[in-house]
Specification:
Elements lengths: L2 H10 L14 H5 L7 E3 L10 H5 L5 E5 L5 H9 L4 E6 L2 H11 L7 E5 L5 H4 L5 E7 L17 H10 E11 L2 H11 L5 E7 L2 H4 L11 H8 L5 E7 L1
Parallel strand pairs: 1-4, 2-3, 2-5, 3-4, 5-6
Antiparallel strand pairs: 6-8, 7-8
């Protein structure tokens, strides 16, 4: 491998490196400080590894959503499940600020919100610290040259296995056929997880499953267009 290719490979996986540092110049980073009672920005989340129960002041199960987007799932799920500790995260600034304003109005405060990247999971949570991980409608990066940007691959699965409790699960939903097939290909030889659900049409095959009961903004658009919702659940052995 040439030195240029080595450097490019390192850069592509930089977010997974222990020495990764967030760099940005966005006004919404400072605006989020007004919600510092429940919002953690950048490396702040990585100072609580193994200490999330202490941050919540209880021993309730910790559940994590990667890519909260506009927050429909997080907002509804937190209010319907007051006996869990929910950690939502997204790396987009304006969207994070918009969601933080909505979260601030909720009566139940059983959540924390992270302006952070999904690639940093293993640096934000300790081994066996998380009960559930939710990963809904991620950017599919459809072009072949962009597939390396997809979160769902070996480093991500390694992180999920590390932070999930035995018996804990990763819940995935996507509208994209190609990304769904990519996911299946990445787990076909996985011995660390049991596949407890794999569906190309979640609503038709599992209409009573809780994954069919929560509908995000993007999901409503996909359903209105007749797009089938694909879903995958991996359970840590």
């Amino acid at each position: 491998m040439t030195s240029e290719k080595i450097k490019k490979s390192i850069d592509d996986n930089f977010c997974y490196r222990p020495d990764f540092k967030y760099t940005h110049d966005n006004p919404y980073h400072d605006k989020l400080e007004v919600f510092n009672s429940f919002v953690l920005r950048d490396e702040d989340a990585e100072t609580h590894v193994g200490k999330w129960s202490g941050l919540f002041h209880n021993d309730r199960p910790i559940e994590v959503e990667i890519g909260t987007g506009y927050g429909e799932f997080m907002l509804e799920y937190c209010q319907k499940n007051p006996n869990i500790n929910f950690v939502g995260l997204d790396h987009r600034f304006k969207r994070s600020f918009s969601l933080a304003k909505k979260l601030d109005k909720l009566e139940s405060k059983n959540f924390r919100y992270l302006r952070a990247r999904g690639e940093r999971l293993e640096f934000m949570f300790d081994e066996n610290e998380v009960q559930s991980i939710f990963y809904f409608f991620p950017d599919p990066w459809p072009k072949t040259r962009h597939h390396k940007k997809r979160l769902f691959q070996k480093p991500f699965l390694n992180a999920c296995y590390k932070i999930l409790k035995p018996g804990g699960s990763l819940f995935v939903k996507t509208d994209h056929d190609g990304y769904y097939e990519w996911m299946l290909d990445h787990v076909k030889d996985e011995e660390r997880f049991d596949i407890t659900l794999a569906s190309k049409d979640l609503r038709k095959e599992y209409p009573e499953h809780f994954l069919s009961q929560f509908t995000t903004k993007f999901e409503k658009i996909f359903l209105s267009q007749g797009t089938l919702i694909k879903s995958l659940i991996l359970k840590k052995k």
